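Hi L.,

As promised, Bacterial alpha-L-rhamnosidase:
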Amino acid sequence: MEDAIVRNKKFIDIAEKLKPRLKKSKVYGKNLVEVVNDKNFIHGWKVNKIGDIKDLDKKVCGKGDSFIVDFSDHEVGYLSMKIRTVGSPQDAPLRMKVILGEMPCEMKEPFSNYKGWISSSWLQEEIITIDVISEVITLPRRYSFRYLKIEVLDTSAKYKVIFDEIYCTTVTSGDRTLIKGLPENVNNDLKKMDNVSIKTLEDCMQDVFEDGPKRDRRLWLGDLRLQAISNYKTFKNYDLVKRCLYLFAGVQDNNGQVPACLFIEPKIRADDSYFWDYSLFFIDVLYDYYKETKDKNIVRDLWSTAYRQIEIVMENLGDDNILKENGDFYVFVDWNQELERQASAQAILIYCAKKALQIAEEFNYEQRNFLRLKIKELTSAALNKFWDEKEKLFIGGEKRQISWATQIWMVIAGVISKKDSKRLMKRLFERKPTIKLVTPYAYHHLIEALILSGNKEFAIDQMKAYWGKMIEAGADTFWELYDPQDEKYSPYGSNLINSYCHAWSCTPTYFIREYLI
Ligand code: RAM
């Protein structure tokens, strides 16, 4: 598998020089809490404060004792504990279980219940054995959490322990001091949403733009695209976007395709997942980066990689200029497993070909004539194949499915005029297809489609309704998955393993700063 990956050394070297220095700060646990059953709260768990963290050094813990610390906000970093013994000398190791959670459910629902298809090792839980208790113990792994549960499994009959201090050394490559505050007159709901978005992005900004600091802790192209545009409005860490672009270009496969995701440690290498949409989005990230920085060199370096993604995807066009369906997950779009993705794939190809055309025109690249022609052909093919004159909606796939995603992507790709797009979006909300959107990633595209079709006010209402609801439910950072009708929704088999600080959910700050102020 490794041999199939072309490592372009020049690109990787450029990326490595842009590796960020992480900012660190020390954050202390704030409150002692209990988590109790209450169906009125998210996932059925309510958090009650039962003490101040200052009370912790009065709590003598022996076998079977436990407590939960609330850090009052989402944190990403390294956990340290200052522990001392009481009673006789430490005549046996201290053994404890440490559970870290982004959400209250992780404090109460046993991780052993997780039977889903992704690895349970993402659940943040350790058994730690300390032979010699001396001052501060720092756990080696980086965690993503707000709540911390400690269960003392054993001390000995002769000694117990006290936790004097518990803190997290947080890490991020985002510098908050560079972010402009919103104008006074922006309403508080939007200010709050902006804040939570920024916190989400900040916690995902590490060595690269990670998708989620709890899971998968790595660089995905689809997530990068949304992080990058939000970053331009806030942290303005251009080098981090540049680094990620060069990393992807550095690990394209033998055919020139960039992977959906890549690993940074122990050395940079591509994952073996390839999605057409994610590969194509390489062009969009490059286009936005160029628009933002006017850095011509990066376009010169990466244009052939970018253009290659279009060629590769277009190899799958039939004689009718329609992309053929290509098995499960050849294109991502959203996590909704019932979604027929063919029509969205076609629209995403058109959207990215238009971005490529803009670059090609500005740089006088020879591919511009071909792109201009092809965009026309792809667009009329899309209308022929997917537009249903009776329903006045796009209908996709073999099952003749009407989905939210298909209409949204056709609008974003500009397959129909702005006026028709506005009508289509109205019809979409009247029709409310059952094949719905289940991720903030897909909702981002809904908001985008509404804005592009001239429904700005309605777009803001939708944004408030969706992301605002997460805030009402207690989100400190925005979640990977959120279905307002089914708050426990997870494509992985349990709400326990979802990521609750997820990069692709951070775009309200982009919408607010791009369109509203
Ligand atoms: C999830 C990742 C990431 C996304 C992929 C498709 O597993 O967390 O956010 O890009 O799916």
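The chain has a mean pLDDT of 96.

Thanks again for sending the construct details.

K.
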